[in-house]
Description:
mainly alpha, 14 helices, globular
Amino acid sequence: MEIDRRAFFAGLGGVSAVALMSSEAKADALEHHMAFQLNAAVAKKFPTAEEIAAKVDTRPTRRGVGNLFASSTGNVKRLPALPEKPTLLDYFHLRFNATSNHVLQSANRAMTNGMSEEIVTACLLHDVVQELIKVDHGWWGAQMFEPYVSEKTSFAIRYHQALRFYADTEHGYEYPDLYRSLFGEDYKPEPYIEATYKMVRNHKWYLEPRMVTVNDLYAFDPNVNPKIDQFVDIIGRNFKQPKEGLGYDNSPSAHMWRSIAMPDHPL
């Protein structure tokens, strides 16, 4: 059976997450992936939303929990300490392990495609809040970054979540098969997502979140491995690093950064 490596990596949380897995866990994951692919090929369809919902009580964690708060390979790992005044780069190096390769590839693609620096920045930041929480991550991510980026960039981060459920062939976005696997082939977005999409579709900044979805990657290319260093200048021009350090500047989202910095605190 031919394996789509990019889809396989994406289903496990990306290249960084796979790198942390034991050999046994990788083998089990590959076996599960191959069985899923075989079943899908035989059935010639994706699972339904009802079938996916029926699996809720078969998992040790809920699908909406952040990457830092769960492990699919046994116990979680002890995290290295952040500097006294952590910067965005520090979080990329020491906390955004499961999401960094994904967003770096997305930002690299946006840069290659000649997108504006605001869109490149949005691509670089759009999914890292999933280290904290996955459900409604567009809204959570925009809230986390609003004190530090332009209004247009936070708009793009917030609303890429709703737009990803709606194809836009004119601008090069197709509904990803990955979502048919994650949500079910018959999945219908919740009414608030539908209402948000309609609002954003008529907004003057529609193309900003749309270009995040276009330059997003719903599968991973193991042959592309961009580094955060190539975005240092863009970060310097588009991200307002607080002198106190992220999490300690008393911004409306400082608590979110502290939660990512110290996910092992019990209260």
